[in-house]
Amino acid sequence: MTNKLNLKLISTPGLSSDRLEYGVAVRLAESEVSKILKAAPLPIRRQMQHLAQATGKGIRAQALLACSMESDGLVGCQAINAAASIELLHLATLIHDDIIDNADMRRGIDALHVKFGEKTAVLCGDYLFCFAFELASTLVLQEMSKGETAGVLPSYFTAICLGEIREFNNIGNFALTENEYLRIISGKTAALFQASFHIGFLLSDEPPENEDIYVEIGRQLGMVFQLADDCLDYISSEKKAKKPVLSDCRCGVITLPLIYALQVDKSLRGKMLNGISEKEIKSAVLATGGIEYTQSKIREFRAEAKKLISSLENKKKRIRLEILLDKAATVVVSL
Amino acid sequence: MTNKLNLKLISTPGLSSDRLEYGVAVRLAESEVSKILKAAPLPIRRQMQHLAQATGKGIRAQALLACSMESDGLVGCQAINAAASIELLHLATLIHDDIIDNADMRRGIDALHVKFGEKTAVLCGDYLFCFAFELASTLVLQEMSKGETAGVLPSYFTAICLGEIREFNNIGNFALTENEYLRIISGKTAALFQASFHIGFLLSDEPPENEDIYVEIGRQLGMVFQLADDCLDYISSEKKAKKPVLSDCRCGVITLPLIYALQVDKSLRGKMLNGISEKEIKSAVLATGGIEYTQSKIREFRAEAKKLISSLENKKKRIRLEILLDKAATVVVSL
């Protein structure tokens, strides 16, 4: 691991061997993402600066940082670069997603392809993706027995791509089953949470035998997050969600609330094929209990995650992970 | 490096510790690419099988394999996976390129976005990209002192993306200078050859101090390859090139033959702004000596590469690399 690229990290200012409080690490990771975007190479700087205006809630970065926490509750400096890398990878997938989904807004501002065109957006996504992988490849693990982080990311990313492709292939498929849907989102969304948890674990002082527990908590939390987001699309206002609502059904993306509604109300499929308004679809989802059903699923995944979190020894870490789990399930909490 | 993913490689059938003749390794790498594409996960299989119909000349794989050759002229088995990975990464960039360039054909068959739509093509490119990175991350180096391969790839890929973005930003820019153009192609094309040479070197038994020589030969060979391809666009027939000819100028991509023609024939820029046919542009490029000028540049890069190759100790390797250099410059040879 005397890889040339690693030397970069060691010489990066601010990344000494000091360890930090969790809250400080979260703020540093946020500002690292923003700094990287604002200082992008010239040919791409305008686009990256546009993205820097709205950098998201950073729940994946927080998950990684919380998992990397050591027994004394502090976070190693390398985790900041790792967390920034995860957020940039997430951003890269969002850019391509918005092209695929014809989404106009993202995080309260114009989607990149709306402002700069689809072709530029494809290239910007590719660039961010490579840059984030490059950043991740600079990580040096203290405990080599756990393996190395750079090799961990790609397999989660093939899972994410397959999830995206499965989602796209099922646009307008009113016969999509709950199981097929859960498979889609376990790739599309949960795999990135798994990656965050996995890398956080690899950077921590947790014993190697805890690896699978971390990856599994990541999966459960990711499922909670996506299902809560699915509900949000039906019940939130545009202002609150900072992105278009009812966009899933408008784009033909079938999510769990609608899958349930289609099962309960057998006339709905025919109505949708003949063309009904988004408002009417929303009413059907609400009337059939699609939201409540999805919330019951969220509770199941959440209970699983809670159980696994409670098995961890580090109390400070347990508290952080439970807060994140609550955040992921915000919709259920706020109802 | 006890990375979980590495275990995969060790257990892959056919990838024992045996070493192979170069020619056998080339054929195995080719068939590995084809096998991977044909056995792609179901949601993406049709698209990957379409790509498997025409898998290219494999010059980047051959470069990697030649560089990985050991003192006895044999190639280690791991180099086959590395070579397949490089070809898949190349394929991923081609898929996105063809979207950006509105190219209809690739390697004699329909471009992926023409057959399956732009959105699917974006996702297929992303998938192949991640898959190739995953494959590369399974490589285990014998000599750890040289560093590790997985971390080497991403930095070349940010360079490739930046080259693509620079090219796209300069579409229709008749004021593009030769230096700016060489900078574009040193990213867009040469960086992937550098990556092939670099990884081949890392897998070989060459001494660590030869690292820079390999990366530099890769760069020169990449420049030769792109400039020869630029000439091909003006002087080849569609049948011979297996892709549309005169496509660069049709898409507003300014390459060296045209940059030179615009410098020599001062009236050309005005004519192009007013709109002249591709045939007329071709005539101007030929009349001003744009092809000969580009060929003189090819000769310069080629001479540099030859000098560096001749400094290598391994005779069998020198011969292979010279053959590849000749291949890269095919256009000059055939004129």
Core attributes:
globular; 70% helix; Farnesyl Diphosphate Synthase; 335 residues; disordered N terminus; two-stranded antiparallel sheet; homodimer; mainly alpha; two-stranded antiparallel ribbon
Task: Give a verbal description of the structure.
- 2 copies of one chain form a homodimer.
- With 335 residues, the first copy, chain A, is mainly α.
- Chain A has one domain (4-334): Farnesyl Diphosphate Synthase.
- In chain A, 70% of the residues lie in helices and 2% in strands.
- Chain A is built from 18 helices and 4 strands.
- Chain A has helices at residues 4-11, 22-38, 42-52, 59-68, 78-100, 112-116, 118-136, 153-169, 178-203, 211-235, 238-241, 247-250, 256-264, 268-274, 278-288, 290-310, 315-328, 330-334, and strands spanning 19-20, 75-76, 105-106, 109-110.
- In chain A, the strands form 2 sheets. Chain A has a two-stranded antiparallel sheet. In chain A, strands 3-4 form a two-stranded antiparallel sheet.
- Chain A is globular.
- Chain A starts with a helix and ends with a helix.
- At the A-B interface, α1, α5, α7 and α8 of A face α1, α5, α7 and α8 of B.
